[in-house]
Amino acid sequence: MSSPASVSSPTAPLDADALRADFPLLGERVNGERLVYLDSGATSQKPQAVIDAEVDFLTRSNSAVHRGAHTLAAEATELFEDARTTVAAFVGARPEQLVWTSGATAGLNLVAYAIGNASVGRGAPASARFALKPGDEIVITETEHHANLIPWQELAARTGAVLRHIPVRDDGTLDTDAAATVIGERTRIVAFTHVSNVLGIVNPVAELVALAQAVGAVTVLDACQSAPHLPLDFPALDVDFAVFSGHKMLGPYGVGGLYGRAEVLEALPPFLTGGSMITTVTLDEASYLPPPQRFEAGTQPVSQAIGLAAAVRYLDAVGMPAVHAHEKALEARMGEGLRSIPGIRLLGDAAGAERVGLWSFDVDGVHAHDVGQFLDARGVAVRVGHHCAQPLHRRFGLTASVRASSALYNTADDVDVFLDALSGVRAFFGAGA
Prior knowledge:
The strands form 5 sheets. This protein has a 7-stranded mixed sheet with strand order 4-10-9-8-7-5-6, with helices on both faces. The chain has 2 domains: 16-46 and 319-428, Aspartate Aminotransferase, domain 1 (Alpha-Beta Complex), CATH 3.90.1150.10; 55-316, Type I PLP-dependent aspartate aminotransferase-like (Major domain) (Aspartate Aminotransferase, domain 2), CATH 3.40.640.10. It has 15 helices and 17 strands. By secondary structure, the protein is of the alpha/beta class. Helix content is 36%, strand content 16%. 50% of the residues are buried.
């Protein structure tokens, strides 16, 4: 795999103009304009190294893993498990602490449904620690993506538990004073996002984990919007579980990771069952493998995992501190420019808040979808809609917003082109100067 075009060491400042050459799609033109891709919060572009890694596996080593004694099977298994080691290290974990999933949504559902299984007596004796009963409480936040909300709604409905939430302040920050009262002696699970996919604000993980641990609650972290942008160490964050998606961090679709503390994964009963996750099966019962294989029933995302490992090596070569510093500068430039455009209402414009390079906003008098189409005609790709966070939009009196999200391959010029195009939206639609 070739190294990123712009760096010679992981501590060097990155050169986003040079990095763009590593991403084939960024050289395309859209509607006759140079592509300005500001939708990485939805899905990132892929460097050639990631594309090559998948293609190379499929053309040279393609075989089922863990299931054969022939040469290709052994080679595929080795590449697959090497990928697990690489991706686990990226988030500070050991290989046995990383479960392959199809993405963060699958990881969150795995945890929720496995806890549901424990609640009806399935699993080993240690699984009883997860069992929920009527009146127990699950706590989420008002900032959650639907993927970290609906599984807990369903779990509450199945077990009689009560779903509660930590509210968000007008500036987009979590109301930590309220959190201290919402999280209480009946709380069994606290599930929250590391970075809001609408607000771009980094939530206070240490404070929420401390509140949860004080009452013995399990913590579940959605790291989809932090894994591509911040240096991560899940054990240091002291969460019980964490999830992330490959396609948001330069990797392929259809693969993600579930991190779990070793003793917590060991106690969790399985969710999906079938081949690959068993030791012994009779017609009446089955015994299950230890983690992570216990949670990896069926055919694995082998080429995708290998592609994700290539993405992680790419990010490591650039250096996550350099990525964060670069994107922080883009975030500041974008925020300043957005504030200068009349009729723009920023969501989550909290003074001094730690952020990633993502801003969502409302344009007075113009629907978000019209804004998106106007920008697209000028080659600027942004996200429009509720971003799978309807309760949060409702909190701010909106049904939809426009979201511009940057990544390591974006440049200051990308931001300026976006701001220049946006400044003409209201006049074009007759909504203001």
